[in-house]
Amino acid sequence: MARVAWLLWAAGVSCHPPARGGLAPPGTSDVAIRVNQLGYRPDAPKVAAVCALQAQVITTFRVVDERDRTVLGPSAAQAAGPFGPCAATYRLDFSMVRQTGVYRIVAAGVTSLPVWIADDVYRGAADSLLAYLREQRSGYNPVFRDSVHQHTDGVLVDHATRSGEFIPVSGGWADASDYLQYGATTAHATTMLLLAYRDHPDAFSDRFQANGLPGANGIPDVLDEARWGLEWLLKMYPEDDLLLNQLGDDRDHTFWDLPVNDSADYGWGRGGRRPVYPCTGKPQGLFENKNRSTGLASTAGKYAAAFALGARVLHERDSTFARRLAQRARAVYALGAAHPGVCQTAPARSPYFYEEDDWTDDMELGAAELFALTNEPTYFHAALQYAALEPVSPWMGQDTARHYQWYPWHNNGHYEIWRTGGAPDSARRLVAEYYRRGLEAVARRAKSGFRIGIPFIWCSNNLVASFATQAHFYRRMTGDSSYLAYETAALDWLFGVNPWGVSMVIGMGANYPKTPHSVVAQQLHLQLTGGLVDGPVYRSIFEHLRGIRLLEADEYAPFNTGFIVYHDDVGDYSTNEPIMDGTANLAYVLAALDVASSPHQRGG
Ligand SMILES: [Ca+2]
Ligand SMILES: [Ca+2]
């Protein structure tokens, strides 16, 4: 990701950010009350957070209704210490308000944005994310109603004997605001969509066709999108021993242009063919920068999981397609088992790549899904063995991690093992305990009023979404609500309970990113509804990434004085770039919240 902003000037492209609309960011006084801008369910924990820019004692708060009548309070504000720009934070717990309605929180003479309490505050949220995925489609793109990279993809590179061969791999999704495409992120995104549908089908509707254009086709749109991912992954695994991992590379960043007239030149002319990289098991990079790849299993495991899960979920709708997926799942899993290690993305001219360091998590999930598909015990035993090798996603409890070092950010495999019919109780307890250890490690760091304990590395919102997902899994597996406050705080953070008062999903909530780092949004004046942006990063990361330059005055400047920063600025690729796999990663937990009591919770 990250189409580097300084190239705006290098390419002589003028910059006209889309017109700003909607509300001014709330909280221009020294005290800001941050609320979940989607709202709160009547039976759920309900907490607003105060960020006080100056040290200030706040003892009580009130909740008022639409007619300004006090319905709760004065209630005690819970002091929770400083955090980032906030000299003091407070938690305002109004869980006792259960009556459906629209309220506001009042404290220290400041009034919050409207607060909705209703059963359906998350209704349609997961489905809305799909709009961003449709917008990111490569091949036929429904936003442009035109082909994107249809005839350019791709030329095999970095292969011992076949470099230069054309392999048809058009399709899939652009990874972020650049047009690179990765097998690992696509497979994870596809898996999350399939899991979301399997466990929460009622969260999704049918308003779009398979090609992404408006119109129902009798298939839930989440499955249209998942199939879009699966079709591309099948192309990226064309032969049993040829596993393709990446389409395009960072030479893509040379121009700030739309996908339909991508000017990138990979050596076959401007707008010409794009390179496709196989997993080789060796360090990769065509130029001076190299990754640290050691094997194939990290990518192979992810493909195996997506294929096997797809085979199960799509079986009733298309048994032929499902059989092909099942065959490819077995083959790619075997390839991963034969070549343990990681297959990282390949850098070209820039030093950045996805530095994934774990692969047993991916093989665990692949094995678990293959067991669910085939009922062959070998896969189940393998899943348990892999699970024991990385019980806790290693970023949990840490201050930092390299870019995509531990990916996916949560391990679906443990839940899939638990969910498997026939798994012994001891195994189910074990994988639940693995999750608990990760949750506990994050919760221990979550002391501020925001109750967020993740490291603020690049793509921090993805870690937040994954934490919430893992907490949700754990709660369902055990009935233990010990981490519910943290799970809720994570979702609240994404929808506005953060120092900036920003909902991190474009188009959702009262105040969301208006100028994301996206050429499509900027040049077409298009709102990228559903896109989850990267989110805040440590100031030290922001200041050291290459080529970031803010293009406009920072409306959040008072809240960017601490150890983490966020900018709603087209120039900030580190905090304000919507990203495909993060968006899909959020789909599961939003689908789970969509309908409080779905009859399909353990179906499929
Ligand atoms: Ca549909
Ligand atoms: Ca991994």
Structural commentary:
This protein is of the alpha+beta class and 604 residues long. 33% of the residues lie in helices and 11% in strands. The longest helix is centred in the middle third of the chain and has 20 residues, at 319-338. It binds calcium ion (2 copies). The site of one calcium ion has 7 residues, from helix 7.
Overall form: globular
Which residues sit in consecutive blocks of at least 5 with pLDDT less than 50?
Answer: 2-28, 597-604
Mean pLDDT: 92
What is the number of helical segments per DSSP (H or I, 4+ residues)? 15
Strand percentage? 5-15%
Residues in helix, %: 25-40%
Strand element count: 17
First-last Cα distance: 34 Å
Q: What small molecules are bound in this structure?
A: calcium ion
**Structural class by secondary-structure content:** alpha+beta
> Major β-sheet, in short?
5 strands, antiparallel
- Computed Rg: 23 Å
Summary, kept brief:
This protein has about 600 residues and is of the alpha+beta class. It contains 15 helices and 17 strands. The two termini are about 35 Å apart.
Kindly list the characteristics that best describe this protein.
604 residues; alpha+beta; five-stranded antiparallel β-sheet; four-stranded antiparallel β-sheet; 15 helices; 33% helix; disordered N terminus; disordered C terminus; binds calcium ion
Secondary-structure map with pairings?
Blueprint (H helix, E strand, L loop, with lengths): L6 H4 L20 E4 L12 E6 L7 E5 L5 E7 L1 E2 L8 E6 L7 E7 L2 E2 L3 E3 L7 H11 L3 E3 L4 E3 L4 E4 L24 E2 H17 L21 H15 L8 E4 L26 E5 L18 H18 L4 H20 L21 H15 L2 H13 L22 H8 L5 H20 L15 H19 L5 H11 L24 H6 L12 E2 H6 L19 E2 L14 H15 L10
Parallel strand pairs: 12-15
Antiparallel strand pairs: 1-2, 2-6, 3-4, 3-7, 5-6, 7-8, 7-9, 10-11, 13-14, 14-15, 16-17
